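Hello,

Following up on my earlier ticket. Below are the two sequence lines again, exactly as submitted.
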Amino acid sequence: MDVVYRYVTTGPGKNDALQWIRDAMHGGRYHEATHFQERLRLYNIDMWDVFKAIEEAAECLPYSGAPQHGGTCWRVLGPTADKRAVAIGVEAFLDRKRRRCILCTIFSVEGEAS
Amino acid sequence: MKCECGGVLRKAVLSRFDFSVYAGIPVTLVDAPGFRCSKCGRETLGGALINRALQVLVQNIVTGPHRLTAEGARFLRKSMRLTQQDLAERLGINRITVTNWERGEAPISKEHDLMLRSIVGAYLLRVERGRPKREEIAQAIDRARTEIAPTASLPFVIADMGARMRKTAA
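Thanks for your patience. The regenerated structure is below:
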């Protein structure tokens, strides 16, 4: 008998990743990695900018981050309140049937958001 | 929950947590319920607490007794996810004026201070069906003053909130 191994994730797929992340952020069902604090300082970005980037995201693309909670990793690209373009690295995952996410990192994006 | 260092983030009461990096203004949380890594000792907060603390800060600034400072004005604008241009359009002024407030190059006028607080008050109470009427904004602010939970009811205290802010406003 053939045995088929499947990689099962408990995170969202491409179609619902952004909505999943937005829901988690608004509901306060998120936490941030300690590395994320350093990135906030490095790029001089605050949580309002993170919220705005996620709410008005132009793109949400999968990226090759190693999920720590069995979810899926996404790079959310959006504008800050000062019209800078930022990309937020987020792991979205399911925990006790609730949609949660972890803010992992902030990627450098050059230029002004359109 | 795991920390990047490989340790485990355990629940802890953080005696003094520097919230400035999240808020963009100088704020320290006292006795905030958060997490501390068992290995590297780094501290972090949960999303619900971050959201609540930001909300309380907005409410404190909106209902504060002093004229808005550069940092306060910027904080309120960003809380509504507005760019400087967006805010200038809502207030019917030039963007440069908003830039000057936020850089501390010009003080915000009494009228614009009240208008900005009113817009935030309306935003907080989701009076967002087009442009709210003047009476609706006034009612929104009154309701905000009475309905907003006082800081004392939180499981933590917000301290050092803008010592600089008070100094400039005085």
